[in-house]
Q: What sequence folds into this?
C-alpha cells in the first residue's frame, strides 16, 4: 500500500487557506445610529458613511438605523425639515425605528443630529448610560449648564463623547495653525454669521461655528472675554493666558462670509474660506476639492471605530464658557469676564 501521509499533509495545509470568491470574511462594519432627523447633517453624514465606494477612514462603518425624534414646534426649521430628511434617509437603506431603546439595540455608536440643543441632554443620557460612543452635532447644548451636564455624564459613565462644528475640520481653517507663511499664531480675527434662536443662548445657536474656528486656529487657553454688541454685529474679544488676542465678529446685518485674518511671527494671511484649502501667497483657493462635511466625517469615522475624541471635553467646555462669558460681558455693558469664573459658577449650579 502506498504511503498517503504526504497527500494528507498537503490537504491539511491547503485547508488553512480560503478558496474561491467571497470566502474571506471581511470585518463587520461599525453600526451607527442617528438620533434626530430635523437636521440636514443627518443626511450628509449618512451619505458619506454609506457610500459603497467609501475609502480610507470613511470605509468600514454604516448608518443602519435612525429615530426621528419629534420636531421642535417653536423652531420653524425643525418643523419644515423633519419630514424631508426622514423621507431621504431611508433611501440609504437606513431603518426607521420607533424609540431610542430600539435605536440603541440596533447600533454600536450614535450621532445626535437634533437641531434643538435643548433636547440634547435628555437624548444623550440613555446613549451614554448604554456605553455607546457618541457624537453630538452643534450646538452641544442650549445652555452652559446642560453642556457641563452632558460632558460630566460622559466622564462618569466612561463613555467616549465629543461635539464639534464642522468648521473646525475645514482645511482652510485648521490648516492655519502651522501655515508656513504665518508661522506661530500670535492672534486671529474670525468672522461669520450670527443668527439667533429664542430658545438658545445667543451665541450658542449659530455663532458657535465661528467661535470654534477661533479656537481651532488659536488653540485653548483663553483667560478673559469682552463683548461689544450693536444691532449689526457682536464683537467678542478674548485675551489668552500668554497675552495673545483673538476676536470673533458675529455678523447680524450685511454680507455674510466665514473666514479669518491670522497674525503670526512670520507673516499675516487671510484664512481659507469654509470647505476649501489654505491660501498660498495670499491667494485663497476656490477651485480645489470642496470638503464640506467630509472633514469632520473623517474624524467621526475614526472615533466610531475606537479612536480618541479629536476635541477634548476641556476645550469644548472652554469654547462654551467663552461664549457664556461674552453673554455676561454684554449684560455688564462690556466689562471683562473671566472664563474660569464662568466654569466655576456653572459647576456649582445644582
A:
Amino acid at each position: 500500500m502506498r504511503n498517503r501521509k504526504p497527500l494528507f499533509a498537503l490537504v491539511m495545509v491547503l485547508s488553512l487557506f480560503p478558496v474561491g470568491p467571497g470566502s474571506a470574511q471581511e470585518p463587520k462594519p461599525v453600526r451607527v445610529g442617528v438620533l434626530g432627523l430635523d437636521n440636514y447633517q443627518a443626511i450628509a453624514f449618512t451619505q458619506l458613511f454609506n457610500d459603497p465606494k467609501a475609502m480610507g477612514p470613511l470605509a468600514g462603518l454604516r448608518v443602519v438605523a435612525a429615530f426621528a425624534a419629534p420636531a421642535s414646534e417653536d423652531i420653524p426649521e425643525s418643523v419644515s425639515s423633519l419630514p424631508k430628511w426622514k423621507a431621504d434617509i431611508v433611501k440609504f437603506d437606513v431603518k426607521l425605528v420607533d424609540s431610542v431603546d430600539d435605536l440603541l439595540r440596533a447600533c454600536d455608536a450614535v450621532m445626535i443630529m437634533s437641531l434643538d440643543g435643548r433636547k440634547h441632554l435628555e437624548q444623550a443620557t440613555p446613549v451614554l448610560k448604554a456605553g455607546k460612543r457618541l457624537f453630538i452635532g452643534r450646538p452641544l447644548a442650549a445652555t452652559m449648564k446642560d453642556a457641563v451636564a452632558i460632558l460630566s455624564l460622559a466622564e462618569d459613565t466612561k463613555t467616549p463623547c465629543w461635539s464639534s462644528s464642522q468648521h473646525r475640520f475645514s482645511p482652510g481653517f485648521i490648516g492655519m495653525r502651522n501655515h508656513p507663511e504665518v508661522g506661530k499664531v500670535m492672534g486671529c480675527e474670525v468672522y461669520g454669521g450670527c443668527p439667533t434662536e429664542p430658545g438658545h443662548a445667543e451665541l450658542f445657536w449659530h455663532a458657535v461655528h465661528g467661535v470654534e474656528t477661533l479656537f481651532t486656529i488659536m488653540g485653548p487657553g483663553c483667560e478673559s472675554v469682552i463683548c461689544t454688541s450693536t444691532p449689526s454685529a457682536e464683537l467678542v474679544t478674548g485675551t489668552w493666558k500668554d497675552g495673545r488676542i483673538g476676536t470673533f465678529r458675529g455678523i447680524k446685518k450685511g454680507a455674510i462670509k466665514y473666514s479669518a485674518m491670522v497674525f503670526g511671527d512670520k507673516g499675516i494671511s487671510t484664512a481659507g474660506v469654509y470647505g476649501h484649502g489654505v491660501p498660498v501667497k495670499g491667494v485663497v483657493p476656490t477651485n480645489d476639492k470642496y470638503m464640506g462635511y467630509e472633514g469632520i466625517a473623517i474624524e467621526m469615522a475614526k472615533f466610531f471605530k475606537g479612536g480618541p475624541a479629536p476635541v477634548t471635553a476641556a476645550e469644548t467646555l472652554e469654547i462654551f464658557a467663552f461664549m457664556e462669558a461674552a453673554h455676561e460681558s454684554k449684560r455688564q455693558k462690556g466689562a471683562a469676564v473671566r472664563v474660569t469664573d464662568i466654569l466655576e459658577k456653572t459647576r456649582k449650579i445644582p
